[in-house]
Amino acid sequence: MPVDRKPEFFKGAQLKVGIIGCGYVGLPLALRFAEAGHRVTGFDTDPGKVSLLNAGKSFIQHIQQTKIQQFVNSKHFSATTDFTKLKEVDAIIICVPTPLDERREPDLSYVEQTAQAIQPNLQRGQLVVLESTTYPGTTEELVLPILEKTGLRCPIASGPENENIPCEFFLAFSPEREDPGNKQYGLAQIPKVVGGLNPPSCRAAVALYAQVVARVVPVSSTRAAEMAKLLENIFRCVNIALVNELKMLSLRMNIDIWEVIDAASTKPFGFMPFYPGPGLGGHCIPIDPYYLSWKAREFDFSTRFIELAGEVNTAMPYHVVDAVAAALNNHKKSLKGSKLLILGVAYKKDVDDLRESPSLKIMQLLQQRGAEFDYNDPYFPKLHKMRHYNFENMKSVPLNPETLASYDAVVISTDHASYDFGAVVDAAKLVVDTRNATRRVTRHRNKIILC
Ligand SMILES: NC(=O)c1ccc[n+]([C@@H]2O[C@H](COP(=O)([O-])OP(=O)(O)OC[C@H]3O[C@@H](n4cnc5c(N)ncnc54)[C@H](O)[C@@H]3O)[C@@H](O)[C@H]2O)c1
Question: What are phi and psi of 433, to 5 degrees?
């Protein structure tokens, strides 16, 4: 690699791009770079995923197999578990998980392992970008020191006087804004925030991403870019908590919160609708805010909004189970011994993602309170063992009038578009609806409990 590689190099065609972590974030990004004509290598520690990808197969429902096949055939995309091949690429993008550990504290072990895997292979002039969501300071404090063990330097510097500060490699942070299943905004249409460790690193990352997204938004540091991602997700988390709390009050006051939200949404400025539900799910919103509260402790700062939102949102599955018990009670039945059908286990509609799904928590609580239950979800024909739950061997039951009628209550937990909620209400004895999925159902409204 050249000693004096300039950031503008990354404006070039046919770059070699390495994406580490071929999951929900890394795989679409890899395919987007391949689509733009670059040669992409996906690095993953899971040999099963690597084999599937090299065979042109998708393991994520919304990512088309034909697309992977096309780029594998044209040699624009391949996958490997061999990290020594990192030596051969121009840019390395890190998209590995950033979960919470058992104590609900940041688990940066995947990012750390990845930096350790890059280190012996790091080449002069390479660009490294961290995309995994994390607290402000991670790129500087965790990734940089590991990479600099090579002896290569990337200085922390900002301002116009450092516009051309010499860099032996470039390092940046650029948060991912992927919204799985969103048909309106795909990766290419979503503006991408980029912060470099220094101005040349920022320019290098801007040049790279400008080739695959409509707009790149540079910020002054990696910390600002890391914080921007957390602000976005904390904004959602806090507003969802607010509307969940107002829903519970509205239920008590006999006011329809969904009607209220629709009415408030007609205000053309200063209002953005958020919708209540059975609790938070997905890999981001329930987890990311805690990355910031953890880091804030280092600064003797208590992030009260985050804690309060967490408290309200965590209580939602408990609220749902209490509402199911109350609904059954009205039918002279106890929760214990009742047979229930959980409709939808994915964390949100139309995705094949179970991570942090509130449906799982609801099922666990129902189990603890002695209810019997089955589930239906077109995206999950069966359930496997998970970190916090054991619903192994459970299979999605078929959805037909006979099965629906055989349960004491049907709990709508995820409002997949493929469900015919009119038919569900027609057949079921009782429906507990956590998503207002039955809003357009006019028949048998007396069977429906909104919660
Ligand atoms: N899923 C989303 O919608 C979304 C949106 C925005 C940001 N993010 C963030 O992006 C990051 C990745 O999330 P994801 O949803 O793609 O996760 P994922 O679990 O779908 O994918 C991660 C991939 O990394 C692989 N992996 C794990 N350790 C590795 C290692 N040491 N080296 C190489 N590969 C390794 C796994 O096998 C897996 O294929 C997280 O920080 C997440 O918070 C996710």
Answer: -110, 110
> What are the structural domains, with CATH classification, of the chain?
7-222 (3.40.50.720), 245-450 (3.40.50.720)
Pairwise CA distance, residues 313 & 277, whole Å: 9
Determine whether the shortest distance from the Cβ of 424 to ligand 1 is under 6 A. Answer: no
How far apart CA 62 and CA 198 sit, in angstroms, is 36
- What is the C-alpha separation between 229 and 283, in angstroms, rounded? 14
- Phi-psi group of 73: left, alpha or beta (phi > 0 → left; psi -120 to 50 → alpha; rest → beta): alpha
Distance of CA 312 to the CA centre of its chain: 20
Residue 26 Cα to ligand 1 middle (Å): 7
Pocket test for ligand 1, best of 50, 51, 60, 96 (most atoms within 8 A of CB): 96
Residue 284 a catalytic site member:
yes
What are the pLDDT digits (tens) for 402-449? 999 999 999 999 999 999 999 999 999 999 999 999 999 999 999 999
Q: What is the pLDDT of residues 101-112, one digit of tens each?
A: 988 899 999 999
pTM equals 0.93
Q: Is 20 in the pocket of ligand 1 (CB under 6 A)?
A: yes
Active-site residue among 95, 167, 202, 284? Answer: 284
User: Residue 114: pLDDT above 90?
Assistant: yes
Q: Are 363 and 279 in contact (CB under 8 A)?
A: no
Pocket test for ligand 1, best of 95, 232, 285 (most atoms within 8 A of CB): 95
Integer Cα distance of 428 and 136 in angstroms: 49
Q: Is 226 in the pocket of ligand 1 (CB under 6 A)?
A: no
